[in-house]
Design goal:
Layout: H1 7-11, H2 20-31, H3 40-56, E1 66-68, E2 75-77, E3 83-85, E4 96-98, H4 100-114, H5 119-130, H6 137-150, H7 157-168, H8 181-197, H9 201-216, H10 226-235, H11 237-240, H12 246-257, H13 261-270, H14 280-315, H15 334-344, H16 355-370
Antiparallel strand pairs: 1-2, 3-4
Length: about 375
C-alpha cells in the first residue's frame, strides 16, 4: 500500500489500481468482520469508505445495506447488488454474477423467520439456487455460511451446523483442510461435540434445557447453574457457542460476579460433582472402583470397631456407656431425586435453612448425581 493511496481504499485494504469489482468484494469481506450493533462507528466508517471508493471508481450502482433482524443472529439484506466474477472471463465467456453472499443472507433471514424445524429444508432450497450459479459458487456459499455461524450472525446455530455438515460432507477426508481457518473452526466444533456426547445423557439433557432457558430469558434463577456453565465453556467453547451467544454468556457471568462471596460459594457447592463432567464410561468405571474400595474400607473399619469394642467392654465394663444413634440418610429414589432437583433449582433454595439441613440436602443431591438421577422430572410424570 503506497502513501498516495486514497484513504477509502486503505480502509478497504485495496491498492490504488482497484476496480469496482475489487471494491465490492473487499466491502463484502469487511462486512463479515464487523457488527453494526456493537461497532456503529466502525460500520459507519466502512460504509463511508465504500461509498467514496465507489465514487472514485465511477460505479453508480447502489450497494446493499446490512440490517440486523429482531430474531437473534438473523441477518438480511434490504437491497442486493450482485457481484461480477471476472476470473477466467473472456469475450466467449463473459463475467458471471456472484449472488452467494446475498443467498446466504436470505437463508439466514429465512431461518430467523421460520424457526429450527425448517432449517434443513431452507438450506437445501438455498443450495439448489446456488448450484445454478457458476462452478465455484457452492464453495463461496459454504464459506459465507460458516462465517454466519461462527460469528453468531444467524439463529438456530445447532440446526444450521447439522444441516450444513450433511450438505457439505464435512466428514469427508481432506474437505475441511481445504477451507483453511474456517475448516479448522468446523473441526473444533465436531471434536468438541464428540466429547460432549460422551457425557452422561441426563447431564447433557439437563444442561441443554438450562441453555435454552438462558437464551430465552436470563434471570436470577439461573445463577446456581453458572459454575457448571463456566466449566463447560472451558472445555467446549466452540460447541457451546452454537447454543449460547457471547452476549448471554457475558451477561450471565456479570450477574454471578455481582453476587456476594457467600452466595457465590453456595452456588459453587450446589454444582454437580466432578464426575458429572467426565465421560459417562469413565464416571461409571470410577464409581465401580470407588464401590470396591468402599467395601474393603467398610470391612477394615468394622474390624477396627469390633476390636475397639472389645477393648472398651473389657477395660471399662464398670463405666456406663453413652449410646450414639445418628439419623440415617437413606438413598433417594429416581422420583425423589427429580423432586429434589426442582426444590434446589430455586435461587434461594438453601436460604434460611439450618446448616445441618443444608448439608443433608447437598449430600442427597450428590448421591442422586452419582447415581445418574440428577435431572428434572420427565414430561408427563
Amino acid at each position: 500500500m503506497t502513501a498516495g493511496t486514497p484513504w477509502h481504499l486503505q480502509v478497504l485494504g485495496l491498492p490504488g489500481y482497484a476496480d469496482p469489482v475489487a471494491v465490492r468484494r473487499a466491502y463484502a469481506a469487511a462486512l463479515r468482520q464487523i457488527d453494526p450493533e456493537t461497532d456503529p462507528a466502525g460500520f459507519g466508517r466502512l460504509r463511508e469508505a465504500y461509498e467514496a471508493a465507489r465514487a472514485w471508481c465511477e460505479a453508480g450502482a447502489s450497494e446493499p445495506t446490512l440490517a440486523v433482524s429482531t430474531d437473534v443472529g438473523a441477518l438480511r439484506y434490504d437491497a442486493r447488488e450482485p457481484e461480477e466474477v471476472t476470473a477466467g472471463a473472456s469475450p466467449d465467456h463473459p463475467p458471471v454474477t456472484d449472488n452467494t453472499l446475498a443467498l446466504a443472507m436470505d437463508f439466514a433471514a429465512g431461518v430467523g423467520t421460520h424457526g429450527a424445524g425448517q432449517v434443513a429444508a431452507l438450506l437445501a432450497a438455498s443450495l439448489a439456487e446456488v448450484r445454478k450459479q457458476y462452478i465455484d459458487a457452492p464453495g463461496l456459499y459454504e464459506e459465507h455460511l460458516i462465517d454466519l455461524v461462527a460469528l453468531q450472525r444467524i439463529g438456530h446455530r445447532v440446526n444450521v451446523f447439522a444441516a450444513a455438515e450433511e450438505q457439505f460432507h464435512w466428514h469427508e477426508v481432506g474437505h475441511l483442510a481445504a477451507l483453511g481457518e474456517r475448516g479448522q473452526w468446523v473441526e473444533k466444533v465436531l471434536s468438541e461435540r464428540d466429547a460432549w456426547n460422551e457425557l452422561g445423557t441426563d447431564q447433557r439433557h439437563g444442561w441443554l434445557a438450562v441453555f435454552a432457558r438462558a437464551e430465552t430469558s436470563l434471570d436470577t434463577s439461573l445463577l446456581r447453574h453458572w459454575p457448571e456453565v463456566a466449566r463447560l465453556r472451558e472445555s467446549y467453547p466452540a460447541w457451546l457457542g452454537l447454543h449460547l451467544s457471547h452476549d448471554t454468556l457475558q451477561a450471565w457471568q456479570s450477574m454471578f460476579d455481582a453476587q456476594s462471596p457467600s452466595s457465590q460459594d453456595m452456588y459453587r457447592r450446589m454444582a454437580l460433582p466432578d464426575s458429572a463432567f467426565l465421560p459417562a464410561r469413565v464416571a461409571r468405571a470410577r464409581e465401580r472402583a470407588r464401590g470396591r474400595s468402599s467395601s474393603w474400607l467398610a470391612v477394615l473399619v468394622m474390624s477396627m470397631c469390633v476390636g475397639i469394642g472389645h477393648l472398651v467392654f473389657n477395660g471399662f465394663a464398670d463405666k456406663p456407656s453413652v449410646p450414639y444413634d445418628p439419623t440415617p440418610l437413606p438413598a433417594d429414589t429416581p422420583r425423589q431425586c427429580a423432586d429434589l432437583y426442582l426444590e434446589l433449582d430455586a435461587p434461594d433454595a438453601l436460604a434460611g435453612r439450618a446448616s445441618v439441613e443444608a448439608e443433608r440436602l447437598k449430600t442427597r443431591a450428590d448421591r442422586c448425581a452419582r447415581a445418574g438421577h440428577w435431572h428434572p422430572p420427565a414430561p408427563g410424570r
